[in-house]
Amino acid sequence: MRKPGLVASDVDGTLLDPMERVSSRTARTMRRVVASGTPLVLVTGRPPRWMPSVVDGLGVTGMAVCANGAVLYDTAADRVLHSHSIDPVLLHDVARELRRELPGCYFAVERATDGARDRIHEQFLAEPGFRRTWMSSDIRMVGIDELTGKPAVKLLVLHEQLTSAEMTAVAGAVIGSELQLTFSTSSGLIELSAAGVNKATGLAAVAEQLGVDRADVIAFGDMHNDVPMLQWAGYGVAMRNAHPTALAVADEVTTTNAEDGVAHLLDRWW
User: What is the layout of strands, in order, in the sheet containing 106-110?
Assistant: First the structure.
């Protein structure tokens, strides 16, 4: 590949090391990329509120595609520019069907506000059973009616006895094409977005705004939710620690995230 015109990277399992930190080598490489005038776009399943620590570690700002493509976020201005939401009626119906087909599952939703620090208590809502496994201080516990009562950019479904792939097999038959289904961990968590929304659609929108052709985009990822982005980009790179579905579609495999795999490859040009 010739020198990329845009660098896109997943965050967890890809850009960050196994301790969820930005290594000094990765930070130096990303600063050189941005200093050269090449856009860096973070494309992640994370919501905006979990992005400031990554941006601070990198020492550069820019556009981020969050919530698996559902939210476009300006990290410099701390501003959500656009979001795709799931209708409350559909949220309610899908949750009811999944509860029947995946007994023992618990639900959570991500909602978009105006920025990462805006109305934190309105952004991440979950059933009490969800928090038993997902120990996060920013979850607000609510009942299922409040959970599905407003639009959400992501519906998360957690099951303590199943893998994410097992859940996907069941959930896919339930939701069909009504929602976009994926997972970013194998540990019994699936993520649903509005139909047709994924990391590729989010990245494509940013590339179009920046005037960069997809053939000039290099993208890095490690999990099933990265597959559409790796396929869309002109050059898709999987981490050596990647899920088999990501490895299968990659144009190249770099070293692991523990070995600064993203920086290792980008050092060819920067």
Answer: 140-141, 124-126, 106-110, 154-158, 189-194, 179-182
In sequence order, what DSSP letters do the residues of 7-27 get, joined into one string?
A: EEE-IIIIIS-TTS---HHHH
Q: How many CB atoms lie within 10 A of CB 135?
A: 7
- Residue by residue, pLDDT tens for the chain (270 residues) are 899 999 999 999 999 999 999 999 999 999 999 999 999 999 999 999 999 999 999 999 999 999 999 999 999 999 999 999 999 999 999 999 999 999 999 999 999 999 998 999 999 999 998 876 666 668 899 999 999 999 999 999 999 999 999 999 999 999 999 999 999 999 999 999 999 999 999 999 999 999 999 999 999 999 999 999 999 999 999 999 999 999 999 999 999 999 999 999 999 999
Q: How distant, in Å, are the alpha carbons of 69, 113, 115, 249 from that of 42?
A: 11, 19, 16, 20
Beta-carbon contacts of residue 14 (< 8 Å; ≥ 6 apart): 220, 221, 222, 226, 239, 257, 261, 262
Q: What are phi and psi of 12, to 5 degrees?
A: -75, 130
DSSP class of residue 2?
P
- Specify the DSSP class assigned to residue 171: H
d(CA 105, CA 115): 30
Choose among 191, 189, 173: nearest CA to 181: 191
Q: Which of 33, 115, 102 is nearest to 66 (CA)?
A: 115
- What is the rounded distance in angstroms from the CA atom of residue 218 to the CA atom of residue 228? 13
First to last CA, the chain: 14
What is the model's pTM? 0.95
Q: Which residue type is seen at 18?
A: P
Helix (H) or strand (E) holding 110: strand 106-110
